[in-house]
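Marked as duplicate of an earlier ticket. Keeping the data here for the record.
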Amino acid sequence: MTIQWFPGHMTKAKRTISEHLKLVDMVIELRDGRIPMSSANPLLQELIANKPRLIVFTKRDMADESVTKQWIAYFEKDGQTVIFIDSQKDNVKKILLENCLKVMDAKIQRDLRRGIHPRAIRAMIVGIPNVGKSTLINRLAKRKVVDVANRPGVTQSIKWLTVDKRLDVMDTPGILWPRFDDVKIGNRLALTSAIKEQILPIEQVVAFGLEYLLNHYPKILNERYGVSATEFDFDATIEMIGRKFGFIMAENEVDKRRTMAAFMADLRQDNLKSISWERPDEYL
């Protein structure tokens, strides 16, 4: 199933990024550490082309650390240097500066041999909506520069920030691609608030999320919702969750819509801790 969509502000964001790429030396691509592959935007790969790139995985604190270690091994085996960060706690300024200097080292050394004193590296930060760009920018600035919310589409304009005398970064709006050919990618993006949940049928997204939890995090599913099962049954699971939280309508029926909305709210509010929504063995 192909999901087609592309709001007007996405078209504008794509054009903005394309126009500003010529102003930067490299690109810092942010991906969500909970969905490392599903948050890789093929449209960005096309726009970035041959620009030097540093890939940074955000929200490490919200992911399953054991799965994150599997992802690190997966990317390193593929010859890629990857960085997983907790933007709230890590020294992100030091981490980004050191790694940007590594990425641009060949150019810096070439300029030095020519007697040219290197200027500050100019890096563009790109990524899908709600990947954590605003949080990262605010930490780098050590103050609130941009609004932060657990919903897509918060950053809507270009902003420059001097991180260090050796690094300037440009923040850009989050951008998605026009359509999702893999329904699993759409579901993961909805579960992590990269896209508005209204874009996909909520039953589809919730069913995908609950079945994934049953298969990989049954303890979380049981502790939060009282669900204990060996095989997934969507209606039975919604019934158990609805009754646990008292979402009962007339004639003792569970309010299905309210129950599904509560599950999605739990995800937005990070009430279900340390979940990685995809794993390396799915890509082997």
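See parent ticket for discussion. The radius of gyration is 21 Å.
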